[in-house]
Design a protein that fits this description.
Elements lengths: L7 E3 L4 E2 L6 E2 L2 E3 L7 E5 L5 E4 L15 E2 L6 E2 L1 H4 L4 H9 L1 H12 L10 H15 L8 H22 L5 H25 L19 H15 L7 H19 L10 H25 L6
Antiparallel strand pairs: 1-4, 2-3, 5-6, 7-8
Helix pairs in contact: 4-5, 5-6, 6-7, 7-8, 7-9, 8-9
Length: about 290
């Protein structure tokens, strides 16, 4: 294919899988040339992209992880080759489980081919599992949170394209996983339980690093999205109040700054108002009415 019409290329240097020693050339997304036409930013800080007439639909998230095409071990490029012996042993032990999980949800899938939506979603599913067995040096909790929210996004996209497949249920699972991981992550960031400098771009998308403020905001968003479905009324209200505390910390004086751009502050205020409305509605429906 003419290079002008390609959206990706293979690195010249070989990547060697530390788990199974398979050699492959990592795929990278070309930059520029009209391949990515930035659209709106969603309330979950996901950057949407318009369909290019020349290149079609491009999913930049699909290229962010390195996946071994042979054993399906998956990680961010900077973490891929730095496994200690115990981690290598564990990844080898779980190879069959990784392959079975992918086969169950996707059937046959080929990571030697060009990345697209399915292989992108699968790469994050695999990474969430792989980071569950990584040591604290690579900040696994943060990577699990990041991979979970991206998996939720891509599986939601797949569900729209394939409404009869189980992708919608998988998206719901990863939204729950993201919620649990981001709540846990905030505690770790306060206590220094994992090295923040091992994180790099905090995302949540690849186009912008929203930093700690983005983590606070997204935790609040997920608290509303997932925590509001809590069946225990007391627990649900506890989640809402916790969410308001996150947003209050983020909103601060209400003044914009480099770490708190107006776009994020506007979204924070809208979400804060939405939570208050949900609390008022819950109170109207559940608190005993005053007589007389």
């Amino acid at each position: 294919m003419d290079k002008e019409l390609k959206i990706s290329y293979r690195q010249k240097n070989v990547t060697v899988c530390p788990v199974c020693s398979f050699e492959f050339h990592r795929e990278e997304l070309f930059s520029g040339g009209g391949r990515l036409i930035a659209g709106k930013l969603t309330d979950e800080l996901r950057r949407l992209y318009e369909v290019s007439k020349k290149f079609g639909k491009v999913y930049p998230l699909s290229y962010a992880l390195t996946v071994c095409p042979s054993c399906f071990y998956s990680a961010f490029p900077k973490d891929f080759e730095i496994l200690d012996d115990s981690e290598v042993d564990k990844m080898r032990e779980l190879t069959a489980a990784r392959k079975n999980a992918i086969k169950k949800f996707f059937g046959s899938i080929d990571f030697n081919g060009d990345r697209e939506l399915k292989t992108g979603a699968a790469s994050y599913m695999l990474a969430v599992d792989s980071y569950g067995y990584r040591n604290k040096k690579v900040a696994p909790t943060f990577k699990i949170a990041l991979c979970s929210i991206r998996a939720a996004w891509l599986f939601s996209d797949l569900a729209k394209e394939n409404p009869d497949a189980p992708y919608g249920k998988i998206a719901v699972f990863f939204y729950k996983k993201a919620y649990q991981s981001y709540v846990k992550l905030l505690d770790l960031m306060q206590t220094g339980g994992e090295p923040v400098d091992a994180v790099g771009n905090m995302g949540p998308d690849t186009d912008k690093n929203w930093g700690y403020e983005g983590v606070l905001y997204l935790t609040a968003v997920l608290t509303v999205k997932v925590g509001s479905k809590e069946p225990d009324p007391a627990k649900k209200m506890e989640n809402f109040e916790k969410c308001k505390r996150y947003l209050s910390r983020l909103f601060g004086s209400g003044k914009t700054s480099k770490s708190r751009p107006s776009e994020l502050l506007d979204k924070t205020k809208d979400l804060y108002d939405k939570i208050n409305e949900m609390i008022e509605e819950w109170n109207r429906e559940n608190l005993p009415k005053q007589e007389g």
